[in-house]
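Hi support team,

I submitted a single chain yesterday and got back a structure, but I'm not sure I'm reading the token output correctly. Could someone confirm the output below corresponds to the sequence I sent? I've pasted both exactly as they appear in my results page.

Thanks,
R.
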Amino acid sequence: MLTHQARTSGLTLIELLIALSITTMVLAAGAPAMGQWIRDLEVRSSATALLAALQATRAEALSRNATVRLRLVNAQGRPGWVVGCVQVSARCPATVRSLPVDNATAVRWGGATPQSMPAIASQLQAGRALPNEVSFDALGGAPGVAQGTDLARIDVTDTRMDGGRRLVLTIAAHGMIRLCDPAAAASHPERCP
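Hi R., thanks for writing in. Yes, this is the structure output for that exact sequence:
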């Protein structure tokens, strides 16, 4: 009679420990980069949300044929804003929409008016010139920026890192809003002027 022995396959305990050790080393090496990536993503998310709020404020001014303002409400630069009409009426309320201040995030905003605006290469301190506002008129322009009284620049940063990701929003007197990255390569379309 022939006997047939079945061969079993699987991992030995030593092979399993070696695989776990290698996986742990790879994860440990990548963890700091992953943390930096998450912080960068939080800054990008906050900046694009603020850009959308500014664009929505301008659109409200155009659609309501009235002056509408976005007010950044936190003195420490924590994300939070209120959009409302300057001249309150039945057609144009004091609060059109708002974002409550987010006390849980490390993302901070800092602002500057045209008269106090340093070069883009200089980072604005979190909470600088806040609370403050930018208003758009019925034609979509930002007359307060032209007069030097409204915010013309907002820096979005993360307080957990020095020299980390910083994005900049600029508001022109004619109402154009731009998001740029001062650290982008010179040929990159997001590069700040």
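A quick pointer for reading it: The domain at 13-180 is CATH 3.55.40.10 (minor pseudopilin epsh fold). Let us know if anything else looks off.

Best,
Support desk
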